[in-house]
TrEMBL record:
Belongs to the acyl coenzyme A hydrolase family. Keywords: Hydrolase. This is Acyl-CoA thioesterase. GO terms for cellular component: cytosol. GO terms for molecular function: long-chain fatty acyl-CoA hydrolase activity. InterPro entries: Cytosol_ACT, HOTDOG_ACOT, HotDog_dom_sf, Thioestr_dom. Residues 17-129 form the HotDog ACOT-type domain. One of its GO terms (biological process) is fatty acid catabolic process. It comes from Paenibacillus etheri.
Length: 180
């Protein structure tokens, strides 16, 4: 397989670590909701940002977000916390890339760290003409990478089922302007 921007042949596989991204930020007063915890949408924006970088690092091509498969909010993130996003490619299909994102909160006063959220997103690599393009397979190395990768085929099958259901539902929905 070749990359249009780089005529060298793309490798058949890459290690998960080659796509790993870390980003740490603070939680400021304008980032919180009425419960004084981080806005979910703010967290989701950060998740999509780091995941897209992981996906592009993996395939060295443009990617589009195909789905946010899950975002599980496990504990509140407060203004006394920092937020660390860690992402890596956890599975690939022919042109699709699943990215796992782990969000760790750290109380900046006590140093207590905890997994505050987890997420899986799927991207599709696209060439300059906008059509899907093949991506390298992945090789997990660490225990955590292996743990996440072990259930990737099951998540892929669930995505296919969910997408079929979503398409059927969308076909039944109307697009009429409610005010007309």
């Amino acid at each position: 397989m070749t990359d249009e921007k780089n005529p060298q042949t793309m490798p058949a596989f890459k290690y998960c670590r080659e796509s790993r991204v870390f980003k740490t930020g603070r939680v400021f007063p304008n980032d919180v909701n009425n419960h004084k915890t981080l806005f979910g949408g703010k967290l989701m924006s950060g998740i999509d940002e780091v995941a897209s970088i992981s996906a592009m690092r993996h395939c060295r091509a443009n990617v589009v977000t195909a789905s946010t498969d899950s975002v599980d909010f496990l504990r509140p993130i407060r203004p006394t916390d920092s937020v660390c996003f860690e992402s890596f490619v956890s599975w690939t299909g022919r042109t699709s890339i699943e990215v796992f994102v782990k969000i760790i909160s750290e109380n900046l006063y006590t140093g207590e760290r905890a997994v505050a959220a987890t997420s899986f997103l799927t991207f599709v690599a696209v060439g300059e003409d906008g059509t899907p393009t093949p991506v390298p397979a992945i090789i997990p190395e660490t225990d955590e990478e292996k743990l996440i990768s072990e259930s990737a085929n099951e998540r892929s099958e669930l995505r296919k089922v969910r997408r079929t259901i979503s398409k059927k539902l969308a076909a039944e929905l109307n697009t009429v302007k409610y005010w007309e």
